[in-house]
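Might you be able to consider the sequence and fold that I enclose below?
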Amino acid sequence: MRVGASGPRGCTIALMDYEDLARRIDAAGLERRACVTEVRLRTFEQRHQLKLPPGYRRFLAELSDGITSEELSILGLEEAEKIAGPIGEPFPYTNAYAKHILERLLDSAEISFSDVMGDPALRARQVGSMPAGCLVLGDLGGGEMSVLVVAGEQAGFVWRVGDFDAPETNDLYADSGDGRQLDFDAWLECWAKLSSV
């Protein structure tokens, strides 16, 4: 990873080394689709009146328009667009709501994710369908999906949606994590580990 880009909320983030990741993906025998052209990316952004998060945009332009994996395939832009809700409308969950969920999960190590999300106050805030303002990255099975928020306060962050909608953290992919919310590049690194890349 290279340091230098501005991520969600203006934080400096490490940039994914896509050349290295491409070599790892190819060595693992996974299928990478042709990259998305700049014209197609601009057309998508204009149609939905938004700017794609920088890491995701770089992934599409420099690495692949989707990756086929036995563990968790990454959908291409066209596939993600077809199953998305209203993409240009703001994602319904705010930074404060995400922070509240993450704090509850961190403060409640002995309580399960289902118990935290089963709180009636949190359940009442759930939208119950595909939220607006996001694109599906991958289908986790059982109605659960990883989505990248592209519009609204949480733009640039990855959420898990399905039975419960909640911010994704590396704790979902590793035995121990720091509880920080994943941006696209951090999620992609978790995906790589899950896919043995």
